[in-house]
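RESIDUES AND SHAPES:
===
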Amino acid sequence: MSINTAGGESARAMEVWVASPSSGRGTILEDQCQSWLTDGERCAATRLKQLSSRNQHIVGRGMVRRLLSRRANCKPSDLVFECSHNGKPSVIAPRSAIRPFNISHTEGLVLVALSDRGEIGVDVESLSRRIDIHLAERYFAKPEVDYINSWHDFHCRSMAFIKVWTLKESFVKATGLGLSIPLSSFSFEVLDSNRPKIKVLSPSLQEYADWGVISFSPAEGYLGAISTNQINFVAKDVQLGIQDFLSLV
């Protein structure tokens, strides 16, 4: 696992944690995370027939409960959550635990980001996942499609697609708008950089024009993205301090 060095004030105001759930029988990670869940969350997990998906669900929710309760002087199971009408989760009690967070998971990896100073959204994908590049022409903005098609090698085009996809997913999750907005209503520029720029293409999104994003690798074989309106993150070139959740288990 590649762990970057934390960089400055922005990194301290944001935490990024990773864990590697089992694709089969649960390990100490799944067992501990499950012990922090509510009965409702455990029931939801049992409804997931695929074991890898079930483990991702358990680990993701367990991570959030453990991480938010660390500074709140409460048990992980004490936290109460609600979802917005677009499906973005937030903690509403106890008050000491209220803090913006976001979860993403894919086969073999769960990523949780927490912020002290602004909204946050995160997405992660495996670089080995099977993708349909033609989806870009249906859902992405034209400059992004042109960027993907500029790569002649299929592998490079796939990597470019995943980069744009994770950026877009992190952005709609951070704003809380979800898929209520078309993915073609905003675009990313300077895509060869790990700090692309957001360009809003719809007047309704103008308030998000100055948000910041970063594209990064949370672990070998994975690509992630974070979007936020955290001012010092937007203004500075920061490094993420990616932490291994197993250290808290």
Q: What stands out?
A: The chain has one domain: 8-248. The first strand starts at residue 14 and ends at 19. The radius of gyration is 18 Å.
